[in-house]
Structures are given as structure tokens and as C-alpha cells.
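Hi P.,

Sorry for the delay on this. The queue was packed all week, but I finally got your sequence through. Input first:
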Amino acid sequence: MFKIPAFKSNFKNDPRKVGYEIEYSGIEIPEVVEIIRDLFDGKVEEKNRYYYNIFSEIGKFTVKIDSSFLYQEKYREILDKIGIKEEVKEEEEHRFYKKIEKLLEDIASGFIPNEIVTPPVNIDKLDTFDPLVEKMKKKKAEGTGQSIIYAFATHINPETPSLETGMILRYLRAFLLLYEWLYKELKIDFTRKLTTFISPFEKEYAYKVINPDYKPGIDQFIADYIEFNPKRDRPLDLYPLLSYIKPETKEKEKSGIVKTRPTFHYRLPNSEIDIEEWCLSYEWNYWWYVEELASDNEAIQNLSRQYLELRKESLVDFRSKWIEIIHNWTKDKG
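Then the structure:
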């Protein structure tokens, strides 16, 4: 059962929407495309063997390999540069590329996940994708825990209730205050800890943001965010949202393409699609605590004060003490 957050409307006063990105392995892309097409009565668009769109009544799904080198066919540029293409007869070119693509796919499948990107759905219809998850389980989809090298994730993209700096700051503060507890509760996979995909926010930045005296305008907030977070590798990635507000922001991110959209990009959870009892509500209901805290300014102020005081008093055992404080707060919330 999905918990409904306090903020139900977006900045346009429409129902808030939420989308998911689910990383997996173990099932070939065309088979997943067929599952989605059958469940949601969609029409399939094949861009290449690594990238499909499915257009349905609820919106567009995308199923792809999570590597722009492959799904954007950048390997073709390399083959052209080294002159391999010139050695292939024109009538054999199509077959040649099919062999290359199959070889690359076989190599990549050992460590690069495939990914389902869902369309956003209204916040009161978050169970829309439960049948898809169940079908994937029956087809023996593999999640994070199936291999020591699988750093797979489940991403949640909730629309922001407001574009005002104060609201974005409340969500970021809420996340930073809850982060240590979330990290412990979600049992983040060891392989994902070793990667740079979910690097924690620096302590200096967390201290800056949590301090109640930090009251920036949007330009200062963005400048500070870019300074302390030059790449899209934080467990709560604000680049899509900040780029929606100020389009020039995406040009300053250093690691890759930013898809502009008015959503938070929460990327902390594992992908446990291979576990029978796992479901999307499990991950969403942990995010719900961020929603709940963000909606309670008094709680943010009280916890921020405790956080800053404990940071000064407890240099060694801060984490365990802080997790206990947040654990007690979450118990009060049920």
C-alpha cells in the first residue's frame, strides 16, 4: 500500500505525478517491451536493439540498456574512425553491425543493467506499475543482489509541489536529516556503496543547508549546489529540477546529460525486483518520510537544531546517535 503525502498538488495546482526508473537484468529488452505492450495496450517504437519506446494511454514507457554509448550508437563513430567500416562491403554492412551490436550486448549484459522508465502517474495511482513488477518477477528478472557487480537501482521521480526556493530547500533539508537513517534502513548494497552513483552529500554542504540561517534566493541556492555537487551522483539529484527552473544550470553539470523536469530525482534504493516480497511501495514508503518531514516546517526546525548540536558534541558516534533520534521520529509517524 502506497502512503499518500501531505502535498498532493504540483506547482500548477494539478495532481502531483510520480515516475519510476527500474534497473534490472536477466530478461532481454524485447521481452520486457512485449510485457509492457500487453499490460498497457501500447504501441512499440524500436529506435535500435538497445532502445524502445512504448506509447500507451497513460504515457510513454522507455526500455533501454543503461549505457548511452550503446543506445546512442556511439560505437559506430569509433568504427568509422578506425576504418573498419571501409573494409565491409556495402551489402554486408547491415549484417556486420548486427554482429557488432550482439557482441557488445553480450559483453555489457554482465555488468550494465537494462532500465525501464515509466511515464509519470498521478500520486493517487502509484500502484499502476505493480502488475509490471509482478510480471518481471515471474520472468526471473535479476536485481542488485543477484551479482557482486550489479550496482542496480530503483529511482523515484516525484514532482515538486512548488518551484519556490523555500520549498526545494525544505525537501533537501528533510532528505539530509533523514539520510543516515534511510541508508541504514534500505540496506544499500555493498557494490553500490563502492560506485560513485550515490555519493553522499559532503558534510560541509549538509551543515550549510541544515543551518536555519541558510536562506538563499534561487540563484545563490543553485550556485551553492553546483559548487558542492558538480556531478549527478548524489542520492537526491536536484539537477533536473534546478535545470527546469534555470535552464543554464544543466550546462554546468560535469558528468553527463541532464534531463530537465520539475521533479526530485531520488536514486538511493536498490533494485530488488528478484525478491518475491519486494514492491515499489516498499521504496516509495521510505521516500514518504521525506515528504512527511518536508511538509512539517516545525519538525524540520527542531531536528535541524538537534542535528547541529549533536554534530558539535559527538565527533565519533554521531551517526549511531542521530539514527536513533530519527528512528524515534519515524516511530511517531507510524
